[in-house]
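> example.struct
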């Protein structure tokens, strides 16, 4: 009996144990399968998302982590649903954290960034170790997509301080996100620093190639062209995506061009053009080759290549490439051929391509330049028309009749040709299609049929007329202008004879459609036409001065208006504009010349009063024949020389005083010049960190000027002030001599530890900040441009070194010669050449010191 009882109990216990084990196994397989399916859906969505990535725009900072697209949303939705079922039905499983991460990433790729951020923050509370680090990385990426750049940087900095031990790959990726946040906010220095510390540790070629490319873009914006070139080279050497591979190689070629290595640039562009893998970009590469030849200065080669790009029927360029090609042609005709009308036509073509020129050319206002040159073409054409009318008015009746007859003959011939063409076109439209066998005899679509070719030619002429098949057909002037220009100018005959002939000419003109009513036959009409011409000429001058920033061309047109004097109301305006131009250019003598002219010839004009008010010289004296222009020059000098340029200002004031006949004004100007020399001497001592030098040329100049004031006006108030300053200078000299002492011991007048310190400190050296100066054409170009003979070159060292202080924009703040043994004449030649140099921008916030070697041999 007991045996049977044990058997029953054993069976009952066995049944009770098996059920929980089976249930646990079923639970595990359920949430594992659910998570597997969720992950599978997520992977499919990511793959679809990657396939829809847009092409890289190298003009904007790229993303190391590309932004999500609209693809794969259903797959991400399924992943979210399955991940949520794990959290709902299996909240105690080990897959909870992974499910939360998967849901957050799915929201991220669906561009539901706030929901994604919430999930990643939840994951940060649940996880630790690498899971926590990945959650932080995804939060940072979400801030980037939300464009919360400042908040994203603060979040990353906080987490970097919070976690001590990071996985190197995750840390590098997090810092790369930080770099993208800085770059998106225009903080190039911080972005470069973050990339420099992270790019080498990134996992995968895809991230590395993109990181190096972004670093190149950042360095390029900082003006560090050589460093940018190195970054693009590193990106191009990594086997990665097709798009990033091509753009990195193209940017490498562009940086060769920017750094003046044109041979390498041409070689790189040609290599890309020959690579069939990049056949889709062949048009762009041909444009880049043309652009490179333009920057080299080979104008004709560049023009030929631009035209080849524009006229390629088998591989037509996009509107963007068309606009850039037309713009390049316009620059060549403007800057190298000096043909402004052709430049205007090409600028107009560039502006009509339905693209944003301002976006393509950030450093110049391309659209305004195109509009300005379009206005130039219109004004120039109208001036040419007026010149032709004036020329026709100067002809005698017989010559005018001859011109009109020639016009009649050409117009009649053109009318007959047009009528014949219209008849051919009409007849052709009524014909039936030829038999199919005709195509066998005359080629495909009868393209070799002489009759059809003639008809096509007639049809073309009926639409376009005799338009020449050249690029500059828009420049064709009106027929009457071109004919009139062929006739030699003759002496005017009596106006009565012209009037007598007028009726016959009018009758003839009515028959052939020539309107001669605008020809100015009377003196009054001629004066009106001349005034209109002057107005157009003045507008051209203003266009060059204000819109195109071409003062030399503006000066020509303003001078034309001033010299013609047909319009007394316009001439003073032109003189005033010329004064403004010369003031801006710093031409003191020309300012004086035109100010005298304005005050002498037009003392009552609005512009004379405006100039007087602007220069603060008071009411004009109506009775005097001329006005002393000392005030004009003084005002111009004060505006054009910075307050800190004491020595230069003092020199200019001294020269002005020498030219001033009025002794009272001369004393005032001399005193101000002396004050500026004293300021220059103190500045020299402070900036040079040297002891007081009472033998400085500035102190001597100041003393001489003060003595001159005492001699010129001994009883004046200025003379008393000059005497006090002279006494102060003598006391300072004595104190300085005493401090130096007979034994050469320097006595400090102020405790050294209390000297005020310069917050900027000494200028950093190029090699310390990793910057290399880049000069277009190289340093050897400067020596090659020197007109030194062999004897002079042989007398110089092999290399001449200079130290430069360079501003962030590449301009020279100051420079000094380091090499000894250079003759004063050669040094002067070099200094004059160097003072006009501009290096490539070096970036940063402060100036830097760099040593540059100029090779003589």
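> example.seq
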């Amino acid at each position: 009996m007991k045996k049977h009882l044990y058997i029953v109990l054993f069976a009952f216990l066995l049944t009770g144990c098996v059920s929980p084990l089976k249930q646990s196994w079923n639970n595990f397989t359920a949430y594992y399968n659910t998570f597997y399916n969720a992950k599978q859906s997520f992977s499919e969505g990511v793959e679809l998302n990657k396939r829809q990535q847009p092409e890289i725009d190298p003009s904007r900072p790229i993303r190391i982590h590309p932004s999500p697209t609209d693809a794969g949303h259903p797959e991400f939705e399924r992943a979210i649903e399955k991940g949520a079922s794990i959290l709902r039905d299996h909240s105690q499983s080990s897959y909870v954290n992974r499910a939360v991460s998967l849901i957050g990433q799915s929201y991220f790729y669906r561009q539901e960034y706030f929901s994604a951020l919430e999930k990643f923050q939840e994951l940060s509370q649940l996880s630790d170790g690498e899971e926590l680090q990945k959650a932080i990385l995804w939060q940072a990426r979400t801030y980037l997509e939300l464009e919360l750049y400042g908040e994203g940087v603060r979040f990353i900095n906080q987490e970097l301080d919070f976690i001590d031990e990071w996985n190197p790959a995750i840390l590098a990726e997090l810092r790369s996100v930080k770099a993208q946040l800085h770059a998106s906010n225009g903080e190039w220095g911080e972005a470069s620093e973050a990339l420099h510390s992270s790019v080498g540790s990134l996992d995968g070629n895809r991230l590395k190639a993109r990181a190096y490319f972004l670093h190149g873009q950042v360095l390029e914006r900082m003006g560090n062209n050589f460093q940018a070139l190195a970054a693009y080279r590193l990106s191009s050497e990594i086997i990665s995506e097709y798009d990033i591979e091509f753009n990195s190689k193209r940017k490498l070629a562009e940086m060769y061009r920017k750094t003046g290595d044109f041979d390498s640039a041409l070689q790189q562009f040609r290599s890309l053009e020959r690579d069939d893998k990049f056949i889709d970009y062949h048009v762009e590469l041909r444009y880049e080759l043309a652009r490179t030849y333009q920057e080299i200065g080979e104008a004709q080669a560049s023009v030929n290549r631009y035209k080849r790009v524009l006229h390629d029927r088998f591989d037509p360029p996009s509107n963007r490439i068309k606009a850039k090609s037309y713009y390049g042609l316009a620059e060549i005709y403007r800057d190298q051929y000096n043909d402004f009308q052709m430049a205007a036509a090409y600028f107009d073509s560039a502006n009509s391509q339905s693209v944003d020129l301002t976006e393509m050319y950030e450093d110049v206002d391309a659209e305004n330049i195109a509009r300005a040159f379009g206005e130039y073409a219109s004004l120039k054409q109208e001036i040419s028309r007026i010149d032709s009318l004036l020329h026709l008015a100067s002809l005698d009746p017989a010559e005018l009749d001859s011109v009109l007859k020639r016009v009649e003959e050409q117009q009649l011939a053109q009318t007959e040709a047009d009528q014949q063409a219209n008849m051919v076109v009409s007849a052709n439209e009524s014909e039936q299609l030829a038999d199919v066998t005709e195509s066998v005899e005359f080629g495909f679509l009868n393209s070799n049929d002489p009759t059809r070719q003639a008809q096509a030619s007639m049809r073309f002429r009926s639409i376009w007329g005799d338009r020449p098949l050249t690029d500059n057909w828009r420049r064709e002037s009106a027929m009457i202008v071109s004919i009139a220009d062929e006739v030699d100018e003759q002496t005017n005959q009596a106006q009565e004879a012209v009037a007598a002939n007028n009726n016959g000419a009018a009758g003839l003109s009515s028959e052939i459609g020539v309107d001669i009513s605008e020809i100015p036959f009377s003196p009054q009409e001629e004066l009106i036409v001349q005034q209109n011409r002057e107005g157009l000429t003045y507008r051209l001058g203003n266009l060059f001065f204000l819109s195109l920033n071409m003062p030399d061309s503006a000066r020509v047109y303003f001078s034309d208006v001033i010299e013609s004097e047909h319009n007394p109301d316009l001439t003073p305006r032109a003189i005033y504009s010329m004064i403004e131009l010369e003031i801006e250019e710093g031409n003191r003598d020309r300012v004086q010349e035109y100010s005298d002219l304005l005050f002498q010839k037009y003392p009552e004009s609005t512009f004379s009063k405006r100039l007087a008010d602007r220069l603060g010289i008071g009411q004009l004296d109506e009775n005097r024949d001329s006005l002393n222009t000392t005030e004009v020059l003084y005002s111009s000098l004060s505006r054009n020389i910075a307050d800190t340029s004491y020595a230069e200002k003092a020199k200019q004031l001294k020269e002005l005083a020498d030219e001033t006949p009025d002794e009272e004004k001369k004393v005032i100007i001399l005193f101000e010049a002396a004050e500026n020399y004293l300021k220059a001497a103190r500045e020299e001592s402070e900036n040079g960190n040297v002891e007081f030098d009472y033998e400085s040329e500035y102190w001597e100049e100041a003393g001489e000027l003060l003595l001159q004031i005492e001699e010129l006006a001994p009883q004046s108030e200025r003379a008393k002030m000059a005497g006090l300053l002279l006494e102060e200078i003598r006391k300072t000299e004595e104190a300085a001599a005493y401090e130096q002492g007979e034994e050469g011991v320097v006595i400090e007048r102020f405790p050294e530890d209390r000297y005020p310190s310069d917050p900027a400190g000494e200028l950093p050296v190029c090699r310390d900040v990793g910057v290399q100066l880049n000069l277009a054409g190289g340093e050897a170009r400067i020596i090659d441009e020197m007109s030194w003979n062999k004897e002079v070159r042989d007398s110089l060292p092999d290399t001449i070194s200079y130290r430069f202080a360079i501003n962030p924009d590449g301009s020279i703040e100051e420079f000094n010669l380091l090499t000894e043994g250079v003759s004063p004449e050669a040094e002067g030649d070099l200094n004059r050449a160097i003072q006009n140099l501009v290096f490539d921008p070096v970036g940063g916030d402060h100036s830097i010191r760099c040593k540059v070697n100029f090779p003589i041999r």
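> remarks
The longest helix spans residues 2-51.
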